[in-house]
Amino acid sequence: MIGSSSKSAAAAVMRATSQAATACRNAFTINSGYESTIQNLKLHANTRVMCQGTGKQGTAQMQEAIKFGTKFVGSVSARKAGTTHLDQPVVGSVREAAEVLKPDATVVYVPLNGAADAFMEAIEAEIPLIVSVTEGIPFTDMARVKAALLSQSKSRLVGPNSPGIVSPLAGCKIGIMPNRIYSPGNIGVVSRSGTLSYEAVQQLTLLGMGQTLCVGVGGDPINGTNFIDALKIFLDDDKTEGIVMIGEIGGTAEEEAAEFLKQYNFSRENPKPVVSFIAGLTAPPDRRMGHAGAIVSSSGKGNATDKINALRDAGVVMAQALPHVGVTLQQVSREMIKAGLIEKQ
């Protein structure tokens, strides 16, 4: 059943590609301002990562990141300045850390009531990449942070309420993702849900389809990085040959991503195969389903059906269920190679 549905879906991709190609659309560009910080999502083996906070949970997660290969350079804690944390120096402020530790990225492990201020410190210190796993930050606090982000062109935020960002190819992990499920390869993964992304990544790894970069955009209504930001990285990266996008009910991020893919992926030669799954198909209106942003309004806005239809119309192949994501991408890739739409690597 999976194979036959994938073949029909691949045929739909071919039709969408043919139609879009006649439009002769130009390649996307990355503009100045905050959008230019999209490039900060690219992780490398030498990406220098610091930690804001030295508590028990943050320490445990940082230890796992170090095991993964992450280059940890130190921490920030006003109370513990002058000591060491995981054998690296602790400084008293983010501004001092920028000068002394010279980080490329920071992961924020501070209590909920201090998270927004921690983001603001990192923005003011021009830390290139800020990662936050914190859930439940007040809307007004995140509105203040988002305004600060949009007013500058140095710092990029992933999250909040995100599992983080990881590059198995680079051996760099910033966040709380489980080490064991990732493997280096050629698939880019972007998701609003951490746990759903873990399931998809595990499938890919078991099928021998490793990952280039996995981005958790987070499940809150206001975030620093969205689907399109991650998709721009994937489409511009020669090492990324296929894409998995995991969405859920609430908001319009998936519909916007669908339009972007229709215009900039399926309109070009050798489009990259994209498989998606949308969680919450049977969710009732006006009821939050996990994340703060996962809610269908009483008017029906943000429902799964509209998202699925938009993605299908764009040429994205929809997995019938979450456990089918990996095999669906595998089958669609084979069909697109057979049809001559993409080259066999």
TrEMBL record:
PROSITE patterns: SUCCINYL_COA_LIG_1, SUCCINYL_COA_LIG_2
Active site feature: H291
Keyword tags: Ligase, Nucleotide-binding, Tricarboxylic acid cycle
Source organism superkingdom: Eukaryota
CC terms in the record's Gene Ontology section: mitochondrion; succinate-CoA ligase complex (ADP-forming)
Gene Ontology MF: a single term: nucleotide binding
GO biological process: tricarboxylic acid cycle
Residue ranges of every copy of the CoA-binding domain listed in the record: 42-137
Membrane among keywords: no
Record bears the keyword Transmembrane: no
A Pfam family recorded for this sequence: Ligase_CoA
NCBIfam families named in the record: PRK05678.1, sucCoAalpha
Family statement drawn from the similarity comment of this UniProt entry: Belongs to the succinate/malate CoA ligase alpha subunit family.
Protein name as it appears in the record: CoA-binding domain-containing protein
